[in-house]
Each structure stands twice: as structure tokens, then as C-alpha cells.
Please model this.
Amino acid sequence: MVADSWLRRLGAGRTRNATVSRGRAVLRRRVDAVRNGSDTGQQRHLVVCGDDPLAYRMIDELMTRYRVRVTVILTSRHRGHGPQIARLPVDIVESDRLDGDAFRRAGIAKADALALVHQDDVGNIHAALQAQEVNPKLRLVIRMFNMSLGHGIRQLFSDCRVLSDAAMAAPAFVSAALGEVAPVFVRLSGRTLYVARRSQVRTGDVVCGLAVTMARGEPDLLPKEQDRADLVLAVAKGVRANGDDQAAGSTDTSELVVARNRPVSRRRGAAAARLRRWRRRPLRALSTLVSRKLRIAALALVALLVAGTAVLKVALGKSWLEAGYLAVLDALAGANADEGAPAVVKVTETVLTIVSIALIPIVTATVVDALVNARLALALGRLREPISDHVVVVGLGNVGTRVIRQLHDLGVPVVAIDKNQGARGIPVARELNIPCIIGEAHRTETLRAASVRTCRALVVVSTDDVTNLETAIQGRALQDDLRVVLRLFDGDFADRVQRAFGITSSRSVSYLAAPAFAAALLEREVIGTISVSRKVLLIAEVPVCAGSELAGAALADAGDVGEVRVIALLTDRPRTTMWDAPPQRRLKADDVLIVVATRAGLGQLLTRTGPPEPAVGADSPA
Model:
């Protein structure tokens, strides 16, 4: 089970705790500003640098959900997603470089926060350092792929969040490929929460229901009747539910040891299975080392040799063994002219003589081709033998690299495809001994080389929607019931593709990650994201500001917003986490709500917990 495998990675919980503690410090500064009167509720000014899908989604999120002013720095409003961004009600600064001049024109000196979302780790760090020189108090949200570097970079800035859109989106692609729940884990106040099917957890460990996914159509997120939800957020205790526990509603807390070596066992089992297939299917293994044209030529010559044997048997009245003997000698050594032989024998020997001219070169070419392909396979990490029940991942960019690493960690056999020898994920694939095929994924021969006909899923995550769709269609042509997971930017287009072509599922990286980036800009601590089909739920910390609508209200009133579930309450005196806070408890300005919410629900909750709106011209956020 995916959840069991991912429990062994919870050592990262310390990092998560550090992140949460840092986020709480930022929230504390925000609350103190409100209490001291320095925050008057005026419109905040945010600056976003980027013109890719993530930047567009994040800007749209900010303009739709929150009442803020946004300035965008991009190369050109006519390239990339510049045209889409230009249609939004934002200020645009065009600049070829992110330097002090561009930041000054964007008003960075008086801005509240800056988001750097280019796909360039070093470039984003350089821009952040320049922005800090202009405005030392600026809040920074930096997009990075290398999170090890990112965690160290955070220490250079007083108020900084480092996020990886690839890390947020990869679990959704992995879960869709395996047909299981996304392996999402969140560490909060000494507890580890994870997403699971209700049937897989004990009743007493369920924190809240997340969605009803069994019905046809779109999932029902955060249903009012919690018992209806088959997808839940639960407390990880290393205990597996069984039928008796569920039926009795057992809440026994005796813990069992989780089999942490499950991925290793899976890898050993997969290796043994590959060895058995190699022994059972030598001809199929040979087909991966010899080109198709050579195989056809060799088969044609063999067919002529067999036909010549049959003719000699009938014409000369020989046995099959003798006729075969004569045919082989004629083909390899050349026929001896016999003027008195029957016409049919003369024709047959003539054909066999011609076969002899082509046979030896073809045998030589076949051997050389097999040796060269074998050596290339060893050098490039390509398939050395046919495999089955594996996952084929197309596109080794940021997301594809995360996906192959997570599948490998789960013990799932993987084959990777990318058209670029210098793709980011190639070194990772070689490090993990993952077979990697360099070629155009939408070509049938490339997919055949990856054994798509026998794979369990095809995950297509390149950045080109057209290529992704073409690859998915070609994969379906090779295997009718193939599970296909497709990366597409446009949500409406993705829904239509799923219905028209029977694609198993589709995901958008920018759609999954944008809410977390937007919330981080607004100093809201998004602790985790949960993908449910093409929708997203957020786990976030929301402070209750003095003078807000919910300050002094009952805890139960926070849930009246709709699409919001309060799972815990952080109190200041003493600083504790209340997991089962009574609904009638009155909220104070020092409290912080830990909630699970939709994007719309979180936006509405922030309106009710934020500082009071100005007396004139205050409009509610959409």
C-alpha cells in the first residue's frame, strides 16, 4: 500500500516542524501588526516575477480570491503566458532582466511580498538577493526545484518561503498511476496526518472526511455528512485497519510495527520476476537487441531455406533430414551445377545460391547489431530485457524527475523516456538504475522500446500539451486498457480529453501548486495540498486577527463559511494545540485555526478572520 511505503519517509517531519514554526513566527508578526494598529486593512501590494503557467495560475488565484494589488514583472506581454496575464487586472512591468531597475519600476520598495517563480533556481536566488537590497523587510516566496539548497537559502532572508511546485504535484501523478490515494503526509504538533481510504484506517483515527469519490462525476469535497466521505484525513499510528476493526468501530490504540522494508521487498520481487522472464522469453529479449528490419530480412531468408528444403524433398524423394542437409550445403557452400537435374531442382538450387550470398552478411549484421545495441543499452541505461507491470514516465523535467524518484522509492519498476539527452532527470535515472530511452515519445517505436504493451501505467508529464496528448493516444493504440495519466494545463480541455479519448486521469501542475504559492505570499501558512481528481484541498493555518468577524465568535462559526473543516486550534496562553476543541469555545485574537479547505473556502475564511475592511470602498473578495 502506498501509505505504508511513505511512512518510512517521515523523517522529514523535523523539517516540516521547522517550517511550521517559522510560519507561526510570521503569523505572530502579522497578528502583532494588527493589534498595534500598523495594519489598517488597506490593500496589499504583491509583486510576481514570471510568465509561465504557475505564474498565471497564482496571479489569477490572487485576483479571484483575495483583495490585493498585483504587479507582474515579465519579459514580454506577447510571449509565454504574457497575453493571458495581460488580460487580468494587474500592473505589468516588462524587463529582460530581474535587476534593481525592474524592481524599482515595480514599486518593490513599498511592496509587501515578492514571488519569484521562474524555473531557474540560481536566477531566483540572485533576484531575491537584489530585491532584499531594495527592501530588507520584503516577504519572499521562491520557487525552487532543489529543496536541499532551498532549505539552506531560507536562512539568508528574514522572511522567506521556499516552495517546489514539482514536489507538490508529483504525489498526485504517482497516485493516479498506481490507482491509489496520493501519499500526502503532514506533521503537526507531534502528530502525523495522512490521506487514506476510510476502509484502510481505524474509525478512531479519522480526523475528518475529505471527499466522496465513489459516485460518478466530480468528487464531493468536504461533505456535510462526514460519514459519507470515503477519502479521509487520519492520524498515522502504524496500525492497519481490518474488517473486524471497522465493523466494531474499534479505537484500540495498541500499535503495530509497519513493514518499512516493503519497498525493498518489492524491488527484490521485481528483480526475481525479471530474471524469470529472461529465462522464459529469450526470443523476446533478443528482439530488443536486434532491429526490426534485420529480423524481417532474417525471417525471409529462413523462409526461403525452409521452402527449398521442402522442394528438394519432393523433387528428389529424399527424407526431411537429407533434404535439409542438401539445402543448407547449397545455401552456405553454393550449389554444384548438375545439367541433368530436374528443372524444379535447378530453380531451387539457384534460389538457394542467391540466399547464400545474403545469408552470411545478414547473420554478421545481426550479431553486430545485437552487440552494439547491448552496449548502448548498458551505457545509456536503456532496457536490457523486456519487462512488464512497470510504469512508463514520459518527460524528465522537474515533475518527471520527482515522479520517477517517488515510484522508485515505492519499489515500482520504472522506465523513463525523454527526447533530450541533457534533461534534468537523466542523471537521476542513471543514479537509480532506471532504464531511460532517448527519443520522441509520441513515436510508436519509442513506446514499444519502453514495453508500453505490458506496462501498468503511462505517465506523460512533458510541458507540451499537444505532445502529451499524442503520446497518450499512441500508448492507447498499443494497449487498449492502458492506464494513462496526462499532464495538461487547461482544465476544460483536460476534462474533454478524458471523456473523448478515455484517458484515465489528467493533472495540472500549476493548478495543484498555485494556491499554496498565493497563500504563502499573503503570509498564510499552507502546510499541505491534497489532490482529489482535478480539484485541490488545502491544509492551512489561519490566524484570528483582532477586530475580525470571528474574533469573539464560537469555534463552530468558523465552519459556517462552508467548504472549511477546522481540525485543530492553536492557543497562545498556554501555547497548545487543541485537537478536540469544544464547538462553543470563543475565539481570541491570539488563536490560530488549522483547517482543511477548498480554495474558495479558504479565501472566504481569510475574509472573516482578517483585519477589518476600510470604512469606505470595501468590497468582499470574489
